[in-house]
Amino acid sequence: MKVSVRRLVKNYDSVQGRVVALDGIDFDIEVGEFYTLLGPSGCGKSTTLRCIAGLEHPDGGEIIIGEKTVAGKGRSLPPNLRPIGMVFQSYAIWPHMTVFNNVAFPLKQVKSWVPNPERTERVMETLKLVKMEALADRPTPFLSGGQQQRVALARALVSRPEVLLLDEPLSNLDAKLREELRIEIKQLTRELGITTLYVTHDQLEALAMSDRIAVMREGRILQEGTPRDIYLRPQTPFVAQFVGQVNFFQGGVAEAPASGMGKVDIGAGSFACALPQGTGIGDRVIVAVRPENMSATRTRSDENGVNVIQGVVEQAVFLGDSIDCQLSVDGQMIRAKVEQTADLGLGETLYLAFRPEACTVFRL
Ligand SMILES: Nc1ncnc2c1ncn2[C@@H]1O[C@H](COP(=O)(O)OP(=O)(O)OP(=O)(O)O)[C@@H](O)[C@H]1O
Ligand SMILES: [Mg+2]
């Protein structure tokens, strides 16, 4: 089912005053789509999910699931009547029950709950989906973090919901397991064809799993698009630095031809780059360049049209697949991703070269 969220507003009143948790959020999730809300802590991700699940009542706006308005226009459908399954930020599985009973629990909550043999089959089928059928009788305290997460996922899926809501389901797991489960969850949702809303503050997770991402900040959506769009064509410096690493250079526009490359002067040099529409000479801008788009060399290469700046190595951290190098460029720290085999010495001078296409320019 399609999910539509229209002008959603949610305020919380606390002793410190009013908190605007959601300040007019709009988005649509298409049938079978994997849609992710990505943003820093406190930006309103969980609140959005909880409003869709019916665990919070919005102060304004509408939520439509399929053809039905489940919240808004003075209406609010209770959570158990919404066709959704949810996995919470903390797994929230019951420690006094076995794996089987945890997963069977939602089936017992509906009036027309299925009789025993059918119920057992449904539960076992769902456990199979998450590869937990062998552990059906185990009490949940005797499970690893990853296994507990699978149980939470099975419990969310057992009622065969139309929409799956996942709130940072992998944040309590170690890096390796997180990567494994990331792929599994993505595959599972694709196989089931289920409409999925995923919440995370981890940009890699969002890029790896999503069909589309909405980047949130302070109760609003700043930009929505495919992972490629968001990473390669960020519309604001905030989005650029939130999805991946980036270097910012402040400068003034020196050349702004009607078509073709412009030129921006920064203290340490000048860059050829495409300027946003309407930019004129003298305008203040920020030029963003990602570390992986800079190549570092000991001698200055003067390939035509390539931007070059000079920096001094301040730190070089070996990361296995690359070296995370910090250089001082005209008093500013710049990050470059350098080949793993490079033998860098602190204090050494390097030249960083990058193509004009690697630059994204924002007007100040
Ligand atoms: N029950 C509540 N009472 C008062 N304020 C709340 C309540 N729940 C959330 N908030 C506030 O609303 C804002 C959004 O919170 P929310 O939990 O949606 O953020 P989040 O994006 O999920 O963050 P995190 O990544 O830390 O989980 C925050 O400022 C938070 O402090
Ligand atoms: Mg949250």
Q: Could you provide a short overview of the structure?
A:
The protein is an alpha+beta fold and 364 residues long.
Model description:
The protein is an alpha+beta fold and about 375 residues long. It has two domains: about 5-240, P-loop containing nucleotide triphosphate hydrolases (Rossmann fold, 3-Layer(aba) Sandwich); about 245-364, OB fold (Dihydrolipoamide Acetyltransferase, E2P), CATH 2.40.50. The chain has helices spanning about 45-55, 100-110, 115-130, 145-155, 175-190, 205-210, 225-230, 235-240, and strands spanning about 5-15, 15-30, 35-40, 60-65, 70, 75, 85, 165, 195-200, 210-215, 220-225, 245-255, 260-265, 270-275, 285-290, 295, 305-320, 325-330, 330-340, 350-355, 360-364. Strands 7-8-9-3-10-11 form a six-stranded mixed β-sheet, with helices on both faces. The chain has a five-stranded antiparallel β-sheet with strand order 2-1-4-5-6, with helices on one face. A five-stranded antiparallel β-sheet has the order 14-13-12-15-21. β5 and β6 (about 75) form a beta hairpin. α2 packs across α3 and α2 (about 100-110) runs parallel beside α4 (about 145-155). The model has no long low-confidence stretch (mean pLDDT about 90). The structure holds adenosine-5'-triphosphate (ATP) and magnesium ion. Adenosine-5'-triphosphate (ATP) binds near residues 21 and 45.
